[in-house]
Design the sequence.
């Protein structure tokens, strides 16, 4: 059996940053299922990463390379092509690879950084046959950018998530024809800048309030039927249209990868589909931390790195001395808020705490307020808030020390 | 000339209206200075960073991701991607290495965006 202070599961941007931070104070082992480190970044060859941390727009591979270089120089034990199969509350880890076979690792602390996976067709229920030529956007991205394989020539994209928008542009640049992007909601689910740079720039049509109702083709996709939907999202039969294509791309969203977290009954948040965490990024199981897309799906990798460093620092700290939980302040998602992370504040003797959340509905002239019981302790004005864009607010030491109640509530209100 | 552009400089995505009368350009709808600059640039000479892949031989993988060091005219992005699909380079490559100089006379160099080690010959 191997022993380490801290074991990090997953070598994407979250795992890399957490491992590096923890390694400043503790012995660290990093386990990654893939051949190489970097998570999904190596396949995200477009620019738009690191604007916040590096003050420039890097591509995904460049962003990853920066941290991979640091890992190589560190004394972190890295095992790639190693999949973690099981974990338990005593922090025993069972992992496997082709060299060591099945191995057992005893850690003092674990950091979960397994990222997220894409929703697939079975989760969104498009009826019809199951021919070849249906891919999730992430799989298509991997095929084109890493393996050099084109999944098709005439493409229909279902869903307007960011991965789908970025792939619409990529397909076009590689010579394929993207017939259109079909989104069931009345607004795009990806960021505005991606709609502009990826669709508008290339004249790719975005059809809102539309969905794919059936897929034609026995061996290979021959086409799809698209239909407008009404306000209650029901297809309007008369608007059905057949579009010939040889490839259907699903860009219908991401969900945290939490098979391992569920094995040990970590308390999960129904809304984020990830573990609930406190301000140290610690889950409900003491000494088990989580960071990155396994907690909730972030828009920006910069925020993943920042919160992963919090997890890394505290995991190493946990190895030295187990902190006492002095109190429990619940952070509650109030009016027009989908969810808030962290969900709990256990120790408010900190310089600051940053809260991340998403709104449920778009609002102009919004005011974000934080309430300690009935008392307003924080306010931030925003010209506009939109569901696809994550919002963060930072509570100062002064605000934190003045709190009196064990519930902190965030509301988004209209100023007019 | 009249034009509507969506600012991509921040997540707000303001719709900005640009009017051009002779040499005079007026901009409305932006909420900050960045947006004004973006909108003027966007109607005068829209530019984008180019990202794509090129073939690489003898490496641990078959494709090398690359980007333009600076923005290039939007209309030339596709042409440059086609140009880059014709070339091939050899491993090893370091992140930041020059891959193609002054692509299509745009003044922008194409650089590698990751390391690719060569496969050890046995
Ligand atoms: C198409 C696309 C475009 C994006 N564009 C941008 C952008 O322009 N700007 C930006 O800032 N951000 C962007 N992002 C977001 C950013 O890439 C993510 O926020 C970030 O990669 C999340 O990092 P992570 O480490 O949490 O997850 P991941 O990168 O998914 O890494 C998780 C890792 O864990 C490993 N793993 C999982 N389970 C196990 C197991 N059981 N055992 C061992 N290893 C395991 C996986 O193999 C993977 O390598 C984009 C994301 C996508 C998908
Ligand atoms: S104009 Fe300013 S506020 Fe509006 S989208 Fe552009 S950068 Fe953002």
Sequence:
């Amino acid at each position: 059996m191997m022993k380490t202070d801290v074991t990090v599961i997953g070598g994407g941007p979250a795992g890399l940053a957490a491992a590096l931070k923890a390694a400043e104070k503790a012995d660290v082992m990093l386990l990654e299922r893939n051949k190489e480190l970097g998570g999904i970044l190596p396949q995200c060859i477009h620019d738009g990463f690191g604007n916040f941390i590096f003050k420039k727009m890097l591509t995904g591979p460049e962003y990853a390379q920066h941290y991979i270089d640091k890992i190589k120089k560190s004394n972190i034990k890295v095992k790639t092509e190693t999949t973690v199969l099981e974990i338990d509350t005593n922090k025993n880890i069972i992992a496997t690879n082709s060299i060591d076979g099945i191995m057992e690792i005893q850690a003092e602390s674990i950091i979960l950084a397994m990222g997220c996976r894409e929703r697939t067709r079975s989760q969104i229920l498009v009826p019809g046959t199951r021919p070849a030529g249906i891919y999730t956007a992430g799989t298509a991205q991997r095929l084109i950018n890493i393996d050099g394989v084109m999944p098709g020539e005439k493409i229909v994209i279902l869903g307007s998530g960011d991965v789908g928008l970025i792939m619409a542009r990529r397909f076009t640049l590689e010579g394929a024809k993207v017939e259109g992007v079909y989104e069931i909601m009345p607004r795009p689910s990806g960021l505005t800048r991606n709609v502009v740079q990826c669709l508008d720039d290339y004249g790719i049509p975005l059809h809102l309030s539309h969905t794919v109702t059936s897929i034609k083709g026995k061996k290979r996709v021959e086409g799809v039927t698209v239909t407008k939907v009404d306000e209650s999202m029901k297809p309007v039969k008369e608007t059905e249209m057949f579009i010939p294509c040889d490839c259907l791309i699903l860009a219908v969203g991401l969900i945290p990868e939490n098979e391992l977290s569920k094995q040990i009954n970590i308390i999960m948040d129904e809304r984020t589909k990830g573990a609930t965490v406190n301000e140290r990024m610690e889950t409900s199981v003491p000494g088990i931390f989580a960071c990155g897309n396994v907690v909730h799906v972030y828009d920006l990798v910069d925020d993943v790195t920042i919160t992963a460093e919090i997890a890394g620092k505290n995991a190493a700290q946990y190895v030295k001395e187990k902190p006492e939980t002095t109190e429990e302040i619940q952070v509650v998602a109030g009016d027009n808020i989908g969810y808030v992370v962290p969900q709990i504040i256990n120790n408010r003797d900190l310089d600051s705490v940053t809260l991340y959340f998403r709104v449920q509905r778009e609002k102009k002239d919004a005011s974000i307020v934080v309430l300690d019981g009935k008392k307003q302790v924080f306010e931030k004005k925003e010209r506009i808030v939109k569901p696809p864009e994550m919002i963060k607010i930072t509570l100062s030491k002064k605000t934190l020390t003045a709190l009196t109640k064990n519930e902190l509530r965030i509301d988004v209100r209209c100023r007019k | 000339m009249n034009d509507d552009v969506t600012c991509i400089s921040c997540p707000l995505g303001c719709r900005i209206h640009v009017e051009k009368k002779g040499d005079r350009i007026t901009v409305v709808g932006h909420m900050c200075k960045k947006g004004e600059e973006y909108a003027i640039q966007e109607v005068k000479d829209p530019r984008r960073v180019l990202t794509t892949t090129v073939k690489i031989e003898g490496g641990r993988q078959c494709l090398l991701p690359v980007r333009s060091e600076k923005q290039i005219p939007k209309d030339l992005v596709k042409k440059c991607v086609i140009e880059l699909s014709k070339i091939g380079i050899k491993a090893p490559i370091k992140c930041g290495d020059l891959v193609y100089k002054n692509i299509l006379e745009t003044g922008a160099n194409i650089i590698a965006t990751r390391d690719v080690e060569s496969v050890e010959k046995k």
Notes: The helical segments of chain B are 33-44, 77-85. The first strand of chain B starts at residue 2 and ends at 6. The mean pLDDT of chain B is 92. The two ends of chain B are 65 Å apart (CA to CA).
